[in-house]
Amino acid sequence: MSDPQATVHLVDDEAAVRDALAFLMRTHGLRVEAHASGPALFEALDRAIEPHGCIVLDVRMEPLSGLQVHDELIARGVLLPVIFLSGHGDIPMAVDAMQKGALDFVEKPFNDQALVNKVQRAIATDIHRWRESRAHADVAGKLASLTDREHEVAVLVAAGKLNKQVADELGIAIRTVEVHRARAFTKLGLRSAAELATMLERFEVKGGSGRPDHQ
Q: Which listed residue, of 34, 126, 177, 195, carries a Cα 20 to 30 Å from 98's Cα?
């Protein structure tokens, strides 16, 4: 599973600030797209098939403020981590935005390295989210390939029950349990009940659902 290409989306309505921030990020090997406004950011995200990275967003902008842009990102279901750049008087607004899910805020004037560190952490957060999402999707696909009976057997085996106990609970023959168990392990790419238990616990699979629950 290779990592996606991450982009730092810089959003500030002052060209000089955008240029300076873009130069700073690029000197640290980061891919950057600079946007003069919230609407410009939305257009760029709409063009992206599956955007990854983070958004660095100034609080005070026109025609939409950073807070308004953030609200729209939430409404659109954009999951990229957001870092706010804020002046001293903007801190209460930035804190409010963090309560709505923004990752962090940096007060102006800021330390260049401190900002880069926050951006790198934000990108790492997004990549981790992406990996977890892909892992959940992979498990969901494997579980969906199980028949209802294979799934029932798998859940009981993961709970630590022996083949005879599974057979008694489901009212089927032990040999039938063995066959369904073997098929389930093959489809899931597992070798032991311990691995199965770990998979189902990690992805919070509920008995009978056949699919992991996403949080």
A: 34
